[in-house]
Amino acid sequence: MDKQELIGKIEALRSVMSQVARYQPLTSPEIQHMSHHLDQLLNQYDRLAQ
Questions:
Q1: InterPro entries from the entry (predicted)?
Q2: The dihedral sign for the CA sequence 38, 41, 47, 50
Q3: CA distance readout (Å), 30 to 3, 26, 34
Q4: Hey, CA dihedral for 41, 45, 46, 48, is it positive or negative?
Q5: Which of 33, 48, 35, 41 is nearest to 9 (CA)?
Q6: CA-to-CA distance for 47 and 44, rounded, in angstroms?
Q7: How many helices (H) does the chain have, and how many strands (E)?
Q8: What pLDDT shows up at residue 49?
Q9: Residue 50 and residue 5 in contact, taking contact as beta carbons nearer than 8 Å
Q10: For 24, which DSSP code?
Q11: pLDDT at position 22, please?
Q12: C-beta separation of 26 from 20 below 8 A
């Protein structure tokens, strides 16, 4: 996966997570799962950027 594709996935997940967070607490399992996945994507981006 290249940087641009990864950035697209990160932005899409951030958007979805933001929308879900309007209706669920940040401690909900769904938000926690999305946050974990976002962390993984950001770590992958960081590795590519080095």
A1: HLH_DNA-bd_sf, Spo0E-like, Spo0E-like_sf
A2: negative
A3: 26, 9, 6
A4: positive
A5: 41
A6: 5
A7: 2, 0
A8: 87
A9: no
A10: S
A11: 96
A12: no
Integer angstrom CA distances of residue 5 from 11, 12, 18, 36: 10, 11, 20, 19
Residue type, 18: S
**Token pair belonging to 3:** 């940087």
From residue 26, give the alpha-carbon distance in Å to each of 6, 8, 16, 32, 37: 24, 23, 13, 7, 14
Whole-angstrom distance, CA of residue 22 vs CA of residue 28? 12
Which residue ranges in the chain fall short of pLDDT 50?
A: none
Contacting residues for 7 by C-beta, under 8 A, at least 6 apart? 45
Task: Calculate Rg over the CA atoms of the chain.
Answer: 12
